[in-house]
Structures are given as structure tokens and as C-alpha cells.
Design a protein that fits this description.
Layout: H1 2-17, H2 25-51, H3 66-90, H4 97-114, H5 117-121, H6 129-133, H7 140-160, H8 164-173, H9 180-189, H10 197-230, H11 242-268, H12 277-308, H13 311-321, H14 326-345, H15 352-379, H16 394-414, H17 423-436, H18 447-454
């Protein structure tokens, strides 16, 4: 069993470290494409800075647009990583080990990109410091900045701590001819890790503390994001359950993102031995559960508005069900909820294509749902004026595409410098599984029976 565990660990190490530093022609083309899209998004933002927010489709009545939709979406998928990883770690779900590194990386990258969206939304980004210097604590915007800063700090710490043993492994595996800069970076980040029992005890204790701490921080972040909307006197926003609604939606879209990332890296880096169909199955159960909860909350939201049917609620429901926003709304209902539910419930035939298709549809549907939550409510007039209109311009489309490209670029580049699997945790879990599996008992055949057989 010892030889088998050592062989598994060595094979795991080789597989996980194989992509590091390798730059193929296809990878260069991939990076060049998304870098070009990101540069185009930067050019669009420069045009917005020169001309002001008149370059966008936002106006006095509809003062928010794609940027706030992107903000809520990216902050939402960031919950996938740390929150799901932390919950699975606290519950001692051993099967989580091949998934946690990717999940935690999603959190850090998504929240970093998402936090830029409100700054891009400002006509005068040079004044963003005034929110901190002169902000009032009564403002949900200030709460938002505090909670996101705490979440990003905690997520970076939570990503770094389990990475220390793997950084030490990469430090020790560097060949003599490798870059001295790379060796210095890995040595510094490994903080003298020697895998001693005392170091292992302290590391696991620190990871446990961060896992418990990051859960309420993550919940508070999207709760505070919901307060930015629910504390406005707007139809569709004035809800006391927006906090739980946003948190469930964040976990929902976050799990879908994890599944997509798992499928991509499993195929590209040949991780089929470590990321198995079992991992997709277990996460798909969580995905289906959150889908049903989110569908229930969505049904309750619109049923309440339809039953009371105040005049502003009537206008909002009309634009969603049969008006100018009906295409967006019904795509979310059918493409983002009903079809994914059918794919996740009906499990005959190949399972992975169904889970991956459902995850892609859910992420598209949840981006549209954020649009449906924000924009139609702002279009409903609060005074006897015309219905507000919003048409995103090429600037907003370009910046949105650039933000998505930056997310993909950071993720792809980081995985060339750190393994996407938590090597030591996967190996440790495998060894524990082998130790808990009883060896088959040796069955001896009595001599009399042997004689009988021979005779």
C-alpha cells in the first residue's frame, strides 16, 4: 500500500506540475486573442473618459447599465470559490480536494475584476477616493467598499495558505538551470516550508480558521450588494429578502462556473484521474438544489408583485412579461432555469455534456437575470413621464467583453505559475482513503478440500 501511495503521489505531482512554464503555440494564440479584446475594451474606456457617460446608454432616469450588471455578476460567481470550498472543507467532504484550488482562484480573480466595475461606472473615476474620505457610514455604498475589501483580503489569504506546501514543492523541483528569479519567488512564497509536523499542524489550523471566517464574510458581501438596490424606492427593489435572494443566486452561478472551469482544465491538462465523474455528479446535485431554491424565490418575488399589483409593479411586470424586456426575461426563465433543470434531473445517457451545457446556460441566464433585476426597475417612471429607455452602446459592449477577457487572461496566466490541483491535499486524501479501505482477506482452502479437488 505504501508503494502504491508513493507511486500515486509521484504521478499526481508530475501531472499537476506539467503545465507550469510550458508555453505552446496554441496558448500564445489564445492569450493574444483575449489580450486584443482586453485592449479594445481599454480603448473603449478611454473614449468614455474623453466624452463622459454620454458615450454610454445611461441617462438620468436609467442611471445604471451593463457595468452594474457585470459588477453583480462577477461578485456573484466569486462566491463559488471561497464559499463552496470553505463549506466543503468545514464539513470535511474529502472529495472536494481536486476542486478547491480552482474554486478559490475563481473567487480572487472574479472579485478583482468585479470590483473595478463601479469605478468604470463613474463619470469621474478620480473622485472614487471621496467615497472613502468623505463617505457616510449610513450609505450602503460605503458598506459595499468595506465588505468587498475584507472579502478580497480574506480570499487572497484563503487561496495562499493551502498553496504554501505546493510552492515549496515547486521550489524543490526546480532544476539547476531554471530561472533564478522563479526560484527566488517560490522560495519567498514558500516561507521556509519543510513539511514538519509542527508546520503542518499550524497550517491546517490557520486554514480551518480562515474557512470558518470566510463564510460569513462571503455572505455579507452579496447581502450588502443587495442593499444597494433594496434600499432604493424603486419597483422590484423594495424587498426584504433581497439579501438571501442575491446570496443564493451567487452560489447558484458560482457552482456553474466551477463546473465549467473543471471541465476545461480536466480536458486541457489531462486531469481525468483526479477530477472524475464523481466530482461533477456531487457538484451537479448542489447546482440542482440551488436552482430549485432560486426558482422558488423568483416565483415568490413575481407572485407578490402580481398579487398586490400596485401601478408601478403593474408597469414593471408588463415590461418583463410582454414588453421591451420580455425577451431577456423569458430567456432567463426558459434557457436559464427550465432547460438546465431538465438536463440536471434527467440523467440517462452521457452525464458530463448535460452538466456542462446546463452550467453554460445557467451562467448566461444569471447574467441576464441581473440585467432583468436592475434595468427594468429603473425604466419604470416614478412620476408621470415617459417610460425610460436604455440601449447599451458599443462602448459598454466593448468594456464588458474586455472585462470577461481580463478574467480569462488572469486565470489562464496564473495557472502557468501555480498548479490547479492542491497536490498535497489530493495526495493526503488518497492516502487516507487507502488506509480506510480494508485489504481483501486471504482465504485458505482446507487440505481435505484441496485433496478432494485434486482427486
Amino acid at each position: 500500500m505504501r508503494q502504491s501511495a508513493e507511486g500515486y503521489s509521484e504521478r499526481l505531482t508530475r501531472t499537476a506540475l506539467a503545465p507550469l512554464g510550458k508555453i505552446s503555440r496554441n496558448f500564445v494564440i489564445f492569450i493574444a486573442f483575449f489580450l486584443a479584446v482586453a485592449i479594445w475594451g481599454l480603448y473603449a474606456y478611454i473614449q468614455q473618459l474623453r466624452n463622459g457617460l454620454v458615450a454610454t446608454g445611461m441617462r438620468d432616469q436609467v442611471m445604471w447599465g451593463f457595468y452594474l450588471v457585470n459588477f453583480v455578476f462577477f461578485i456573484g460567481i466569486s462566491h463559488a470559490g471561497t464559499l463552496i470550498s470553505a463549506i466543503l472543507r468545514v464539513s470535511h467532504a474529502g472529495w472536494r480536494t481536486p476542486v478547491t484550488r480552482m474554486a478559490e482562484l475563481i473567487t480572487v480573480v472574479a472579485i478583482s475584476v468585479g470590483a473595478l466595475m463601479p469605478v468604470i461606472d463613474l463619470g469621474r473615476p478620480d473622485r472614487v477616493q471621496n467615497i472613502i474620505l468623505f463617505g457616510r457610514f449610513q450609505s450602503p455604498l460605503l458598506w459595499d467598499i468595506i465588505s468587498i475589501t475584507c472579502y478580497l483580503t480574506g480570499s487572497l489569504t484563503y487561496l495562499y495558505l493551502p498553496l504554501i506546501p505546493d510552492l515549496a514543492l515547486m521550489r524543490d523541483r526546480l532544476k539547476a538551470g531554471e530561472s533564478s528569479l522563479k526560484r527566488s519567488i517560490y522560495t519567498a512564497l514558500a516561507v521556509g516550508w519543510k513539511d514538519s509536523p509542527e508546520q503542518r499542524f499550524r497550517l491546517e489550523k490557520a486554514i480551518g480558521i480562515m474557512a470558518v471566517t470566510i463564510i460569513p464574510i462571503a455572505v455579507s458581501v452579496h447581502t450588502v450588494v443587495s442593499f444597494v438596490f433594496s434600499m432604493l424606492l424603486r419597483p422590484g427593489f423594495e424587498s426584504t429578502v433581497f439579501g438571501i435572494y442575491f446570496v443564493v443566486g451567487a452560489i447558484f452561478s458560482g457552482i456553474a462556473t466551477i463546473l465549467i472551469v473543471m471541465a476545461i482544465f480536466r480536458k486541457l491538462y489531462h486531469l481525468e484521474e483526479y477530477i472524475t465523474e464523481k466530482h461533477f455528479k456531487y457538484l451537479s446535485y448542489l447546482l440542482l438544489a440551488t436552482l430549485l431554491i432560486y426558482a422558488y424565490l423568483t416565483f415568490g418575488e413575481y407572485l407578490t408583485m402580481g398579487y398586490t399589483l400596485k401601478i408601478d409593479h403593474k408597469l414593471l411586470l408588463e415590461t418583463l412579461f410582454v414588453g421591451q424586456n420580455a425577451v431577456w426575461f423569458w430567456f432567463f426563465v426558459i434557457g436559464g432555469t427550465i432547460i438546465p433543470a431538465a438536463l440536471l434531473i434527467y440523467r440517462r445517457g452521457p452525464l458530463l455534456p448535460k452538466i456542462l451545457t446546463a452550467s453554460v446556460l445557467i451562467n448566461i441566464g444569471m447574467w441576464i437575470k441581473r440585467f432583468v433585476i436592475i434595468l427594468p426597475s429603473l425604466q419604470v417612471p416614478l412620476m408621470p413621464y415617459d417610460f425610460g429607455s436604455y440601449t447599451p452602446t458599443w462602448v459598454e459592449w466593448s468594456i464588458t467583453a474586455g472585462a470577461i477577457s481580463v478574467f480569462i487572461l488572469i486565470f489562464a496566466l496564473v495557472t502557468r505559475f501555480m498548479p490547479v490541483l492542491s497536490i498535497w491535499e489530493v495526495a493526503e486524501h488518497h492516502e487516507a482513503e487507502m488506509a480506510s479501505t480494508p485489504e481483501p482477506a486471504h482465504i485458505s482452502i482446507p487440505a481435505s478440500r484441496e485433496v478432494g479437488v485434486r482427486g
